[in-house]
Each structure stands twice: as C-alpha cells, then as structure tokens.
UniProtKB/TrEMBL annotation:
This is Translation initiation factor IF-2. GO terms for molecular function: GTP binding; GTPase activity; translation initiation factor activity. It comes from Paenibacillus pasadenensis. Its main location: cytoplasm. Keywords: Cytoplasm, GTP-binding, Initiation factor, Nucleotide-binding, Protein biosynthesis. InterPro entries: EF-G-like_DII, IF2_II, IF2_N, P-loop_NTPase, Small_GTP-bd, T_Tr_GTP-bd_dom, TF_IF2_bacterial-like, TIF_IF2. GTP binds at residues 450-457, 496-500, 550-553. Gene3D superfamilies: 1.10.10.2480, P-loop containing nucleotide triphosphate hydrolases (3.40.50.300), Translation factors (2.40.30.10), Translation initiation factor IF- 2, domain 3 (3.40.50.10050). CDD domains: IF2_eIF5B, IF2_mtIF2_II, mtIF2_IVc. Residues 70-357 are annotated as: Disordered.
Amino acid sequence: MTKPQDGKEGKEKLRVYEYAKSLNMSSKEIITILKRLDTPVNNHMSVMESGMVSKVEGFFRDIKANAAAKRAQGGQQAGTSSARQTEKRPEQQGVHTIPRQEQTQQPNQQDRQVTMNTTSNNSSSNGTQRTSQGGSRGGQGGGQGRPAGQGGGQGRPQGQGGGQGRPAGQGGGQGRPAGQGGGQGRPAGQGGGQGRPAGQGGGYGGNRPGGQGGGQGRPAGQGGGYGGNRPGGQGGGPGRPAGQGGGYGGSRPAGQAAGAGTASRGESRSTAPAPRTFGDNKPAGGGQRDFSRSGTGGGAGRSGGPGGQGGNRRGGGKPGGQGGRFDDRGGNFRSRGKNGRGGKSSQPQRDKIDNTPKKIIVRGSMTVGELAKLLHKDASEVIKKLIFLGVMATINQELDIETIQLVASEFKVEEVEVKIPVEEDDFETVEEKDEEESLVSRAPVVTIMGHVDHGKTTLLDAIRSTNVTSGEAGGITQHIGAYQVEINQKKITFLDTPGHEAFTMMRARGAEVTDITIIVVAADDGVMPQTVEAINHAKAAKVPIIVAVNKIDKPDANPDTIKQELTKYELVPEEWGGDTIFVNVSAKQRTNLEELLEMILLVAEVNDYKANPNKRARGTVLEAELDKGKGPVARVLVQHGTLKIGDAFVAGNTFGRVRAMINDKGRRLKEADPSTPVEITGLTEVPQAGDPFMVFEDERKARAISERRSIKQRQSEMGANSRVTLDDLYKHIKEGEIKDLNVIIKADVQGSLEALRGSLEKIEVEGVRVKSIHNGVGAITESDIALASASNAIVIGFNVRPESQAAVAAEQEKVDVRLHNIIYNVIEEIEQAMKGMLDPIFKEVVTGHAEVRNLFKVSKVGTIAGCMITDGKISRSAEARVIRGGIVVHQGKIDTLKRFKDDVKEVSQGYECGITLEKFNDIQEGDIIEGFVQEKVER
Ligand SMILES: Nc1nc2c(ncn2[C@@H]2O[C@H](COP(=O)(O)OP(=O)(O)OP(=O)(O)O)[C@@H](O)[C@H]2O)c(=O)[nH]1
C-alpha cells in the first residue's frame, strides 16, 4: 500500500481521485476512509495533503496489523494454505495487484472451500472459484464464509474481487445464496459468535470492540469483517461486500454502513489482502466452516458487500437488501438480511426495482458491455456472473451465444431468443430458412435463351406488348431489366435481357435468379450452336427448360425436325415419352403465346415457387447505371421479403436508401414483394449487374457492410483463385469439394471432340468422374469461359485456341484453359491431375554470370575458361549456358569449378575462377557463362 502512495507523494497536489486511482480504489472509498479518520474532504478533486496520505496509509497498516494479530491467534488453524497465502502476499503488492494474485495463489483455499461448498448448490466450478475467494477474503469472507462456502466462495471471485473489487462483492452476493445458508445457518448472533472463531471474528471483530460482538452478532451475514467492527452489523456490515467488507469493516467503525460498504470494496481490493489474511487466520480454529460461519458473519458482510457497492448504489448495502442485484444473487442476502438484524434494522431498506428484462433477443456474440446493457445491468454485475460461471472477462470481451444464455439465466431472464443473424458481410451466401407457413406463392422468373435471330427479342416484346395492351392503359412499358405479365390472375416475371450470356454471367456472380428457361428455336433454322450452348447453360443451372419452337408461321417451318434434333440433348417432348414441354409459337404473329404462358404457369405450379414476403427484402441487381437525372439507378429483382420506400440496403459493394421505386409499367410503388422487378433510386454508387441486394436496419449499417465488402473484394482479387484448376484438382477431390470434374471441351472437328469426350468420361479416380457440361466445335469463346466460371469447370481446347476476348475473360475469371493437340496427352493430364500426380513445375532461376577472360587448354581436361564472376554467383552444381553475342551457343552442366587449384562449391561476384563445362570445349574469350538452377514451384 505504501507503494502507490510513495509514488504520488512526490507529486504536487495529489488529488483524491488520483490517489484512489493509484490504489485501484474509488474516490468515494478514499473519501469515506478519510471521513472515518476525521479528515473529511469535499470531493474527489480535493487535494490530498501529505498528512492525509499517511493517515490513510496508517489506516491500512492498522488493518494489516489486526490481520497479523488475528493470524497469530488463529493462524494455526488457518492451516498451511493460509500460511502460504500470507507469504505470498507481500504487502507491497499493493492494492491492485493483490486480489488478482490471490486468485491464482489460492488453490488451497479453494480446496477448502470446496469442502465448504458441499452445501452449495452452485455450480461446483464457480463454487470453487468463488469459494476460494470467499475463503480468502473472506476471510471475512470467511465471513462469507457463508456456509457452504459458496456464499463466500462464490461470492467473491477472488481475484476479481481484487481486480474488480466489487464484483467481488457481488460475487459475494451471489455467492451467498449459499451464503444464506450461511446467513441463515447461523442464527444471527450466533453466526457471529460462533461463526467466527474468536480469532476471526476477531479479525475484525477483534479489532473492533463491541462491534464485533455486534458483528458477529450480526445476523449472519453481515459481514463478519464489518460486522465485527461495526456494531450491529449495521449496515456497515452488510453494506460491504463481503470480503471487502471484511477488510474495512474491521477498520471502520460501525455505522459506516454504506459508506463503509463502498469503502470496503475498495478496500477489499486494496486491503483485500487483509481480509484474506483474516480469512485465513480466522479459520484458525474454525477451520473452513468456521470461516464460513464467521464468514457468515462475514457473509453478511458481503451481503453487505454487495451492498457495499450495491449498497451504496443499490441498496445492496442493506442486508437484505438486496435490491435487484441482491435478488439476483439470491435471497440469501435477504435471508441474511433477515437474520441479520443489524443489517435490516440499522439500514433503511431501499428496494431496488428489478428491471431485468424478462426476454432478450440475441443476434450473435456480443461484448460484456453490450450484454450488460441488454440486461439493464452494470457491466460489473455481468462480469461477476461470468466469474461465477468460471469465465474471467473484461467489459470488451466477446461472449458467445451459449455464454450469453447462461449469464441471462443467472439474471433470471425468462426467455433468450436467439436470432441467428445473417452473416451480414456475406449476406448472399446465407440461406434464410423460413417457416413453411410464412411462405407465399410468388411469380416464376423466366429467362429466354436461344440462337441468334431465332426470335428471342421478338418473343419477349410480343409477350410484353400483348400483356400491356390488354392490361395497361397507353401500353407504355419501361425497360427495367425485367417485366411482369399476368395471365389467369397469376403473374410471370420475364428477365428482358435474352441470351445465355447474361444468364450465365448472373450465375457466375452467384445470383440464382431464373426459375424457368425458355429455349427459343426457329422452326426454319433448327438447332444451332448457341441453341446447344443455351441448353447446356440451363442444364448446368439445373433450371427447367421449356422449348418454344418459333417462327411456325414460316412456310418452311418444321417443328417436328426441331423436336427430333433436340432429343440428342435429352429434351424429349412429352408426346414422345419425355418430360420436356414444347410449344409452337410465332412471336411475330403472336400465335400461341398464351399457351406458352400457361405452360410456364404449369411448370411453376409443379415447382411451387414460394417466398416469405414478410421480412426484409433480398434480391439481385439485374442492371444498374448512372442516370443523368436520377443519379445511380439499379434495376432489382426482389426475391425474398418486401422492399419498401426508405429501406436502407446494400447492393454489391454499394449502399443506399430506397428513395423511389418504379415498376415495369412506370408506376411508382411503395412496396415490392417477391419476384417483382423494380427500378430504385437512392444509391450512392452504381452497383453491378448480378450483385446481391439486401435491406439492413439502417443506413449506417448498410454503409459499414458495403465498405467491408469492398475491402474484402479487393483483397480477394489480389489473392486467390477459388476456381478449380488441374493443378489443385487433387486437393479439391481430397477435401471432398468436388464430386464431378466439370469440363468444357472445344475441338477442331466433331470426330476428335467425340473421341476426347468419350475417353475423358471413362476416367474415374476416387469416385470422381469427368463430366462434360458443354462441348462444341470451334474456338473457345467468352461464353465458354463464362459457363466454366459459373460451373467451376475446366476448359479443354483440342487443336483450337481461345478467342482473344475469351483469353482475357479466362485470365480475369481465373478459369483453367488447357490447350492440346494430342488426345492421349489430354487424357493423361486430366488423369494425373485427378490422381494428384501432376509433375512438379520447375522454374529456372539464374544465379549469376561469369565473363570468360582467358582460356587454358589442358590435354585430357579440355578447355578451362578463366573467368571473372561479374554478378551473382556460379555454383558447381548449377547448370550453365554459354552466351556469345546474345546468342545461346551451349547449355549443359558445369564439370569443374576451381579457385586456383582447389575445387570449390561456388564462386561469388568479384572473384576469379576456372570453369570447365561438360561435353563442351568450344569456349571463347568474351563468352558469358550464365549459371542457373531449376527450382521447384509449389503448386
Ligand atoms: N416470320 C417470323 N419471323 C420472326 C419471328 N420471330 C422473330 N422473327 C424475326 O426474326 C428476326 C430476329 O428476331 P429477333 O427477335 O431479333 O431475334 P433474337 O433471337 O432476339 O436475335 P438476337 O437478338 O440477334 O439474338 C427478326 O427479323 C424478327 O422479325 C416469327 O415468329 N416469325
């Protein structure tokens, strides 16, 4: 204790708060002590004169002396453990450190307490911990001693006590439950009397005259410490948090009750040692139990203790007191209180309203501080509870949901609703599970795909205008990336960017927007390459296909040929025993469009597309642009929930608040439910097509998330490639990430394409097979790369090359493109990769250069090149190439490398050496010998 003081003494104008801080106490505690010492100060800003400091010091010394005296008396009983403790606590530890140290140092006590705990019903672990403390302080604690020890023990988490000071107290509080036992256990007076073995009680009691009696007298609980001192168990006793109380208690004259209480805490911490000492001492005769009892007395103290804190604050001080907190901890307190006459009688009971919420909603881990706020508690109370639960936490420590639930139940919260939060930063990856009953049918979302000029746009326009003219005045439609039509009172949403490029781009970006695809095939043209691509893209996305055989108005239209051709792609019409719906239409003449729409509804009905409209909206950005008038606009398809004006949202890496919404008919909407496409304004930047969209509670959060997403994206762009490549294929297989190796095969002629596909599909390694998701004749196109990217596939080019755009796309998307001209090599490469046996890759690293300055011809040896190493170094084991006038004239191994007559392993820059090369004597002056090695590159 002197330490901090000393430190401060040198300082001019040491203020109360500074001094308190140096002792890890509160200003109030110091003020209380000073008052007690008849040296009142006004407030925490008052100057501590040196006399005051020494008075306080003296006060602490007295406590220690008392403790020592008690120790002397009861030390025997204290047993070895206490002895150890004592030894371990050098006085200097100072207020702050002691408590903590004690924590760690008190195994013995723990043991003891464990014994005490027998009665305790608290969780043993806690019990143990606390107990130990209890024990210690408790000495007083002992007091707390509360029977069971728990009380005591638990009550104060030791260290904490120390550290937190109060917590301890509280701990005590809780502890008490047991305590009560204690409290009750001992009949008040008895408690005291009995409880404390003379000595102990003594501890405190000893010091204090009569008081003690009182103290003991005090109803059980009151803190022995205090109790002792304070007569009547006054409030004082109770007031103080147990352990602490003890410490102070002793010092303080009765009455101080609350004040003391506080002080006690302080002290407890500061003085903690003392109390403990006491505790230890006390046991003396009493053994643990005695402690307990005394503790009880102490207990009360604690109760008081808590009170102390509480007391002061919450009225905990009051024995029973117990305000909310006490309550939490238990009736014990109260019980004590009850028993404890003093407590009750002397202190007016301040009832604390228990404002603990009955129900809390937890959305994930939170800090101790946040949890405390949620529970309407002080962080210190939560920390105390945690300590009882065996968790040492600070206010900023994150608690997982399980711990939060435990703490909440400790506070008697009746219901903890855990709402697992969406992984907010990566919200698109989280699938929200909705209760079946919350789901409502939604419109299917349809994409039209097909070969060039087969009539996709005409069909889309025909469907839209048919619908518009029938349902909308004026027939004006807006291009917002998608539109809705209504047939038989049911809606269908069409994405109005036809073609599989947009479709696959969305998929590549992780957006699963389409429910149904319509493959348009012109009846006069037949199945064309892009028809096949479209089919493969739809299949890769596992989306149902409806075939619209278009242009049936044309004289040369032959729908049956189309059906026939499509059977090759597993699209077999129902009338032929398959399950693919074919509808013959004429987009131009608007023939059979209704039937097509009905078929879409049929497929939708079978697949029963549903969404929950009653939650925050999620969706996908279909298009976005910077509009001169409106600023950034995004056309969004709402897929879940309902989007409302004013909603704050994140779209990709951008955020905003919905300022205005219009639908495809140009109408302003206030709300948009699932499957509704809307154009929204209110963004801060332009997102990208395919970006995920989601509403958040407020704009601040949306902004934070969008910022984190931007950072993450930049990082991932710099970093890794998550696509499958042959090089890391085996790893993916091993990790079970890959069930099929998707490949896209492009070849120069159909024959080799078929041969290659046949051979590849026969490969099977560890249950993994090659699956050709798309193949075709011709160059590798951008679309192939998009499909590969969306389907995590490898592209194999046989005698073909990627188009320049495709090469760029492959680079960007990190798609592995393998080019070959020998079928066997393709098969072998894929097989080896699947077996994880790809040959290691080597990289050439040039180590240095030597300039040939002289030549020495030696018979039987050959030509020795007298060289100067001009940069780097040349190693004997390196390979070398001879460069003459910029041209490599030889490449081979170094035969000998000498400095003077000695063989050396390597020669560095600036040194001369003699080099001979294996199987090469035609060296000339002026040649450069370049040394290089092959280094293995990690795949
Ligand atoms: N006779 C006839 N012509 C049609 C029909 N549908 C589309 N066409 C014509 O086919 C041509 C191509 O139609 P689009 O709708 O532009 O075809 P697309 O598939 O969208 O073409 P891209 O946008 O280039 O992929 C146009 O001249 C249309 O008028 C139809 O049902 N009957």
